[in-house]
Specification:
heterodimer, A: about 250 residues, alpha/beta, globular, B: about 375 residues, 16 helices
Chain lengths: ~250, ~375
Amino acid sequence: MGQIALTIDGLGGDFGGYKAVNNVSLTVEDGELRVLLGANGAGKTTLMDLVSGKTRSTEGRVFLHDNDITNWEEHKIARAGVGRKFQIPSIFKDLSVRRNLEVASCRNPGVLANLRFGFSQQARQDVDRVLELIGLTEESNRLAAYLSHGQTQWLELGLLITQNPKVILLDEPTAGMTQAETHKTSQIVNSLKGKHTVIVVEHDMAFVREIAERITVLHLGQVLAEGNVEQIETNPKVREAYLGSKGIG
Amino acid sequence: MSEKRRIETAIYLAFFALIMCAPIILDPFWLNRIAKYLVFGMLGVAVALSWGYAGILNLGQGLFFGAGAYMLAMSLKLASPTSLQQGSDKPVPDFMLWNAEPGSLTDLCCINKASFLWLPFQHQWFGMLMGLVVPVAIATVIGVIVFRKRIAGVFVSIITLALVLLVRLVVIDAQPVTNGFNGLTDLGWFRIGDFEFDPYIVPTYYLVAVSLCLVLAAARLLIETRAGLILQAIRDDQNRARYLGFDVPLYQTFFFAVSAAIAGLAGMFYVVVSEFASPTFMDLTFSITMVVWAAVGGRSSILGACIGAILINMISATVSETAGFAEAWKVIIGLIFVLVVLYLPRGLAGLAHDLIDRLLARRNTPSRGTAEVSDASQLAE
């Protein structure tokens, strides 16, 4: 049993009386890849918002290793080691692909510390390596605005990999992708296993099968079940609540 | 890319050389005029930095310009002979004497309730210092409040616009210390050591021209730093930058303050060459005019915005003095603006970038099609 990377303890978010996430507890090990499954409105994205600081939680705590990061400002949570990819891909569209990754490679967040030119050998190598991994080496000098949808998603993944956080939260990384693109994305995500702790929100079951180790199912803001693909597929509660009688996929 | 960098450097150097050579052909009257336009060019740099690179459309840049101008003008007013004419050896601005209540002491400390504020301005260095400190301080306070609250886009423009009008009202209303509508006139000459900068002599022109070159180079280098890159990333997607761990308001405030400092500096130079400071500096029209300069020149180019400011002012000066156009010149300027926004959204600088790219592409790979050219031209940004 590895070390626990992320601990979510009784987390809840109250939106004017409506609890989108209610008393969710979850632990994710170092280097684990966890999939969050659930129907629309189950609270998956909200849970990511609460962990990454986008929304303030009203109860419960979040720990990154032994660090209590509950309700910190977003950039502080990011600096502590939680990276996040959004459902709608967000990148720096008026900068070239390489410049995008260079931004993510700045290790020191301060203004004055960055009043200098160029990047270290190490940073340049990191950027080259990531470009290779996300398959955008050829496009490195193109403006990010001109990338295809799939390439944009990969670039955002690349930003996260360059940022190199301990925990990576991915919100629907294959949304709007073709089958081939989805397959490539699963390769990228699989390459993160072991190096990073990854939490993925996803609907696409083909993709989930390609990457999943453990799955947590959320339903109406609460944890419904947890287990590997097989266990989840055969879990009667999950079938009833989310998958219907057809089973997964 | 590096070839492109060399061409850009060459263009900067050519511009520096051009403004350095101007005194050879210009008479003192035009020299003084061009010096004013160079000051406006400096304002263009300030606008490009905040609008083009930080994505903050400041419609109240005149606030910082005016603050810089007034601070130095206060010192120069006290250095003016008109402030010593009243038989006293201590300077008192003439307008304070005219408005003094009967029997009040004719001394800066207490001729009216607020006149003591002028005391430290007897030292010119204090006025110069305040000309930078005040704009930067105002910008920092605005920045901390506005950017921490994550106000963005058009709302920042509205807030800055309202602020410049507010400050203009306060300046006009504080007549006993600011001379209200009339502003500060009859100023003494700016001096360094024993040298007096008469606005119509060549050294004064060079004072402005060299400063403009330094500001241009510094601003261009600043956006070339990693912090400049991060600033552009924040402009494109604040949220993404935030989740990469950058303290977004800190970056915005820093560059907003740098832009304010450049505007304040421009305000001081304007006072040196034009010998007055007035509330019109904080008119809304003036702040909007600056934005037009930057839009025409190219807001995402430091030098472009600077040249835009100088060109528009030269054109409007020439056109407005040509018989037959005297009435129509504002229409002509308006027309230029509309045409540029419609057909050159990246301004003259964007046009220049495209031309350079086309030339480079033709020279390097004569066989390639035009599709690649347009890609490369976008990269130039």
